[in-house]
Design brief:
By secondary structure, this protein is of the alpha/beta class. It has helices spanning 62-66, 77-91, 115-119, 131-139, 151-161, 179-189, 203-209, 225-234, 265-276, 282-308, 320-329, 361-365, 380-389, and strands at residues 2-3, 15-25, 40-48, 54-56, 58-59, 102-106, 123-128, 144-146, 164-170, 190-201, 221-222, 238-244, 251-257, 313-316, 338-340, 357-359, 371-374, 396-399, 406-408. The structure holds zinc ion (ZN). Zinc ion (ZN) binds next to loops.
Length: 413
């Protein structure tokens, strides 16, 4: 683990801490036993005075972070649907008859997002740092190489495959410690008139809807268009279009080229809106931290009241974001007896730090809870429908975010 002394985007030393979430375990390091002791690392944010990037103060060694990586993109049905939308958006922005070149995805995971390109006869290549996931992609027929992406990797790719007509990286840039090496790599491997795209969790949503649970050790940088544009411009890359990502609601896809071209109107609208909404200002982020502490107190008061009334609470969704919420709020197995999760790789393990048992939803419902705390609140509609229609749950819900925690009373109690 290393504490940063320079901004990850502009290298300025003027980085100001503003939010300390305490020492926390790595979100994905689930435990085999309830009493197992885990390593904890500082989790806190700074704001850069020069480029306004919000970022973590510490970088955990990627080998420690990703050694237990269990997420495979293709397991989610939404991801497959989004891959098609992403493909259509991408091909509408470059010369699709450009058959001589190929489409490169960085951190391509199991190849879900390259498959629509393959189905439409494009040459493709994926690169990914997780060896086991590269094997899955190859088995699925997606050409994939095992590598950590950066300048060195880009030079190797250029030598072996020539320049790529399209290079894209989804939700990986915010997890990269050396953002400059990564973006320079994208430039090196991109054809002169090619199109690049990066997808990032947009800091605007985090700030405005109080998504403090999206702060975790893997998520190093919290980009706005301003901070991302500064990074791209430093390498003579220029934004020409931006869209909202349909997958998580909270992300944006930013398209860029090596030359300044006519920008879509939306680019300036983003810039203007960021200025009006002050999302790059230090005062807004200090306020975000203050509101997060209030939120924690409110949520804990709700849970304690239900506990005192001798009603039972369970959780739903043992994702990375749930880890931050549970640890920051100090929620433990005395308050919540179990957490439901459909991912069988997580079942029968315990959450890091909070030590709560993860079980399959059917089993958790058999505990006969009165309330379900929906930790994967960004999917709360789907979860509630599933609980009521397929598992006949008639109790109530605690929906912690966005903004204020809310109680949604069920129909049966
Ligand atoms: Zn900076």
């Amino acid at each position: 683990m290393r504490k940063i002394s320079n901004c990850r985007v502009c290298q300025s030393k003027k980085i100001h801490p503003f939010f300390d979430l305490g020492k926390q375990p790595l979100a994905n390091s689930l435990l085999k036993k309830a009493n197992q002791k885990e390593k904890k690392y500082p989790l806190s944010l700074s704001w850069c005075k020069d480029c306004n990037l919000v970022q973590l103060n510490h970088t955990v060694d990627p080998k420690e972070l990703f050694s237990n990586y269990v997420w495979v993109t293709g397991t989610s049905k939404t991801a497959k649907e989004y891959a098609k939308i992403f493909y259509n958006e991408m091909v509408s922005r470059f010369k699709s008859n450009d058959a001589e070149n190929y489409v490169l995805e960085i951190a391509s995971n199991d190849g879900t997002f390259l498959k629509p390109f393959i189905e439409n006869k494009y040459k493709t290549l994926g690169v990914d740092p997780a060896e086991n996931i590269v094997k899955v992609a190859l088995k699925e027929g997606v050409p994939t190489e095992h590598m950590f992406f950066g300048v060195k990797a880009a030079r190797k790719l250029l030598k072996g495959h020539g320049p790529a007509a399209v290079v894209f990286a989804r939700n990986v840039l915010p997890h990269v410690a050396n953002t400059r090496d990564f973006i320079e790599g994208m430039k090196i491997v991109l054809k002169d008139d090619g199109v690049g795209a990066v997808e990032v969790h947009y800091a605007d949503k985090i700030l405005k809807e109080l998504h403090y649970d999206s702060i975790y050790h893997e998520h190093l940088c919290y980009f706005t268009v301003k901070s991302l544009e500064k990074l791209l411009n430093d390498f003579d890359l220029y934004i020409f279009d931006i869209i909202k990502s349909p997958i998580s609601g909270g992300s944006i896809v930013v398209y860029f080229k090596k030359k300044k071209t006519r920008e879509k109107v939306v680019v300036n609208q983003y810039r203007d809106k960021e200025t009006i909404d002050k999302i790059n200002n230090f005062s807004s982020w200090k306020n975000f931290a203050r509101k997060s502490y209030f939120h924690r107190d409110k949520l804990i008061a709700i849970i304690k009241k239900i506990n005192q009334d001798k009603k039972k609470i369970v959780g739903y969704g043992a994702s990375a974001r749930s880890s931050t919420l549970l640890n920051f709020c100090g929620i433990n197995s005395k308050m919540i007896s179990a957490i439901a999760d459909q991912n069988h790789l997580k079942q029968n393990l315990f959450t890091a730090g909070s030590h709560i048992l993860i079980e399959k939803p059917e089993k958790v419902i058999k505990r006969n809870p009165d309330y379900i705390l929906i930790l994967a609140w960004n999917f709360n509609q789907e979860i509630i429908e599933n609980l009521e229609n397929n598992l006949s749950f008639r109790g109530s819900y605690i929906i912690p975010l966005p903004n204020e925690p809310k109680i949604k009373f069920g129909c049966g109690k």
